[in-house]
């Protein structure tokens, strides 16, 4: 990978100090046991089938004032900022494209991941996430409304504690709506990590890591992300990685569909709150303008009187 | 696909044909086009193969190098995929034109080979924590005639089947450095265990139905396809009877959606099942072809290979 020499990059062969801690040498089984306690409750107190969004869904639109539309989604320790900019002509393109394009860029903060520091240059995972995000968003946006133009969607992952792709998709959906980009439907997304017969809905980073690590015995393991357009009953993107049989994939898909469905009212609430806020803001601005006008008018009257008297 | 122009009427013809399970080249929706496969075609590569699937032409070369394993996984080797879209295939691929497509395919392959159920990286370990084999799989796309993913995955599996790693005669520890002595006898080499290596199957959604092995014309009629990676059955790739009578169940190692459209949940599930069936048949056929070719080379009955001149 090309290094950016203007930055301080650190020695190339440095390794995280965590390699020398006790946690590092834990076996697969030990790590797995840590994820769940005896009662089947996860480390952060959730049940297996409980998404973080259900206990607290912190999201808001209109986060970045400079952007046309923006959103912030927080799933406990996964924090994502998204901003959407006005359509602009597609750069370096000679052919006319009938459909508008969506340009997505996902970026991890250098300090966002628990296992290692992220480099400044985009790495393979960031590129893969960008492509996945674009694929998920494309069916939801009315792209024929802005031919030969592109809408830029930028995602910055401040902290990654698992399910960052679905958090990014949810945030991007909110931001696109906030930017008043014409869309067919609300887009929602959810992730599931499968280890053996256990299904971790909305997994944390530790759960995700274990689901994508190779177990000692050939059991089902994998990570699935699904994004849906709920009103149209369509799946806009589905990504699976790992090793799973047909039954397990089908089960996970059903769980994911339900979870995505559950997110819709939450997203709607955020959007309505945003619209109400905009209305309130406009009203306040209008009132202020009226007051100013009134004050000016009364000043004018005073001066007129003074002039007439003089 | 590349520079292909179809009139709306032609598209309607294809769509209606698919609806009636009869495609424009006479196949049904679950038929593959005829393939030609040849292994050991590049003399400087450790293993190589060339696959021609109707008009799609893929050349795969495998190179091996010795590398240091990552500290997180000291007992695993490495495998990397590079795809090059030659400008011979389509003028658009000139310069960086084919980059997006190439990265997409390489990423799919990497994801499909990620799990140990698909490809066991432990067999590439030479000396735990110190030395391992690194396999570079270089994929060259010489001609595009639709259905690149399937063709690439088959060619890669054939090339890996053809790959032989020299056996290690001695490993000497010299002050923390490893001194390897490799056998220089070309016949003293071990083949890779690639029975479970995954094949990718593209299910192209045309109208309401999914077809396997779409031609370039059919691909242009579709907005979305589902690509599934399914592990192979090791018993198809070995002449010994006793090898794994357990007949491992086929599993999904990766599922991804390619294209800008969306699908209904039921269509996706049907496509996945259809892909699983197709992959099993394909894997069996590939195994038979590879074993036959190996046997022919062993008893020197194989007709003279002309490489690309045929």
What is the percentage of strand-forming residues of chain B?
25-35%
DSSP E strands of chain A, number = 9
Which regions of chain B contain 5 or more consecutive residues with pLDDT less than 50?
none
* Corresponding CATH superfamily of chain A: GHMP Kinase, N-terminal domain
Count of extended strands of chain B: 14
Strand fraction of chain A equals 15-25%
Termini gap of chain B: 27 Å
End-to-end distance of chain A: 80 Å
| Helix segment tally of chain A | 6
Largest sheet of chain A: 5 strands, mixed
- Classify the fold: give the CATH topology of chain A: Ribosomal Protein S5, domain 2
State the major sheet of chain B.
Answer: 6 strands, mixed
**Spatial order of the strands forming the largest sheet of chain A:** 1-2-3-5-4
Q: At the fourth CATH level, what is the homologous superfamily of chain B?
A: GHMP Kinase, N-terminal domain
Shape of chain A: elongated
* Architecture (CATH level 2) name of chain A: 2-Layer Sandwich
């Amino acid at each position: 990978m090309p290094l950016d020499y203007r930055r301080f990059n650190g020695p190339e062969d440095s390794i995280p100090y965590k390699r020398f801690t006790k946690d590092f040498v834990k076996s697969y089984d030990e790590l797995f046991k840590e994820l769940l306690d005896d009662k089947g409750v996860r480390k952060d107190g959730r049940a297996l089938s409980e998404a973080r969004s259900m206990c607290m869904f912190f999201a808001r639109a209109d986060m970045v004032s400079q952007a046309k539309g923006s959103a912030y989604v927080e799933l406990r320790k996964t924090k994502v900022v998204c901003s959407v900019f006005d359509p602009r002509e597609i750069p370096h393109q000679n052919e006319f494209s009938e459909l508008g394009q969506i340009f997505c860029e996902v970026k991890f903060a250098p300090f966002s991941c628990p296992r290692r520091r992220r480099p400044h240059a985009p790495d393979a995972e960031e590129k893969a996430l960008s492509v996945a995000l674009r694929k998920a968003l494309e069916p939801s946006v009315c792209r024929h409304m802005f031919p030969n133009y592109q809408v830029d969607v930028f995602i910055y992952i401040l902290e990654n504690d698992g399910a960052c792709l679905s958090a990014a998709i949810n945030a991007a959906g909110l931001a696109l709506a906030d930017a008043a980009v014409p869309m067919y439907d609300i887009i929602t997304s959810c992730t599931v990590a499968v280890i053996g017969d256990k299904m971790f809905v909305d997994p944390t980073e530790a759960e995700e890591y274990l689901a994508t690590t190779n177990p000692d015995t050939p059991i089902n393991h994998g990570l699935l992300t699904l994004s849906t357009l709920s009103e149209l009953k369509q799946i806009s993107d589905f990504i699976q990685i790992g090793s799973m049989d047909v039954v397990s994939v089908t089960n996970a898909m059903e769980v994911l569909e339900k979870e995505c469905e559950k997110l819709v009212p939450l997203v709607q609430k955020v959007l309505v709150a945003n619209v109400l806020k905009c209305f309130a803001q406009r009203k306040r601005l209008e009132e202020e303008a009226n007051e100013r006008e009134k004050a000016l008018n009364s000043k004018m009257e005073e001066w007129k009187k003074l002039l007439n008297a003089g | 696909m590349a520079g292909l122009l179809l009139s709306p009427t032609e598209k309607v013809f294809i769509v209606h044909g698919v609806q009636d399970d009869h495609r424009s080249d006479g196949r049904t929706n679950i038929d593959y086009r005829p393939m030609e496969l040849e292994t050991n075609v590049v003399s400087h590569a450790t293993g190589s193969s060339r696959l021609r699937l109707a008009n799609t032409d893929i050349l795969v070369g495998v190179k091996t190098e010795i590398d240091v394993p990552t500290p997180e996984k000291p007992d695993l080797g490495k495998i990397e995929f590079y795809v090059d879209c030659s400008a011979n295939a389509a003028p658009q691929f000139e310069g960086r034109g084919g980059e997006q497509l190439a990265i997409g395919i390489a990423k799919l392959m990497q994801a499909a080979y990620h799990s140990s159920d698909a490809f066991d990286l432990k067999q590439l370990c030479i000396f735990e924590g110190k030395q391992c084999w690194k396999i570079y799989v270089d994929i060259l796309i010489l001609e595009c005639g639709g259905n690149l993913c399937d063709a690439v995955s088959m060619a890669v599996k054939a090339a890996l089947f053809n790959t032989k790693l020299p056996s290690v005669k001695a490993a000497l520890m010299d002050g923390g450095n490893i001194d390897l002595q490799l056998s220089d006898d070309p016949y003293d080499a071990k083949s890779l265990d690639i029975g479970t290596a995954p094949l990718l199957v593209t299910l192209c959604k045309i109208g309401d139905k999914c077809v396997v092995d779409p031609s370039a014309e059919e691909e242009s009629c579709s907005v979305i396809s589902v690509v599934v990676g399914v592990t192979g059955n090791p018993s198809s790739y070995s002449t010994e009877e006793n090898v794994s009578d357990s007949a491992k169940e086929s599993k999904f190692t990766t599922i991804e959606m390619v294209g800008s459209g969306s699908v209904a949940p039921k269509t996706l599930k049907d496509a996945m099942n259809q892909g699983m069936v197709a992959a099993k048949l394909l894997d069996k056929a590939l195994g038979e072809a590879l074993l036959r070719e190996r046997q022919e080379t062993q008893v020197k009955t194989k007709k003279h290979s002309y490489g690309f001149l045929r």
